[in-house]
Amino acid sequence: MYATIQCSKEDVLQVLAYVKDPEIDTVSIIDLGMVEDITIENHTVKIEILPTFVGCPALEIIRGNIVKAVNELEGVEETTVTFINSPPWTSERITEKGVQGLKEFGIAAPPKHMKEDGSWHVDCPYCGSTYVTLENIFGPTACRSILYCKSCKNPFEAMKLISTTM
């Protein structure tokens, strides 16, 4: 009898590094820190994902892209993806590669901390200026806000700060 090939967590993580955010093609779900757990049992891969926002309309697209990518690994017969809310996703989970990918796309990464009055600041992803204003806390998606750079005159989006230490 021949031994069957089983993939490893490292194999799955390598594939997930190519599963991009459906709206921001410069960052993967790994870059965003969305992958919480991977288990492999009897050629079935189970992946737990932390949504960046509960109710994000891209979740089913992300699920489908994960299943498609992981099912292509040798030895995988089935992939299940579960979205979990505990622990909650926080913006601190975004990797440095993710921060750079967001900037490439023209989105400022979330600030590292919020001020005591609830305000926060990010620099312009285009020119690096600190001379920016918040135009609208509500951006095109629940996880982003719209800002304006007074130096280069470009509007831009910024990921909202979501932290357990606010």
Automatic annotation (TrEMBL):
Transmembrane segments: none annotated. SUPFAM superfamilies: Fe-S cluster assembly (FSCA) domain-like. Residues 9-82 form the MIP18 family-like domain. Coiled coil: none annotated. Pfam families: FeS_assembly_P, Zn_ribbon_PaaD. Residues 109-160 form the PaaD zinc beta ribbon domain. It comes from the Bacteria. InterPro entries: Fe-S_Maturation_MIP18, FSCA_dom_sf, MIP18-like, PaaD-like, Zn_ribbon_PaaD. This is Phenylacetate-CoA oxygenase subunit PaaJ. The gene is paaJ.
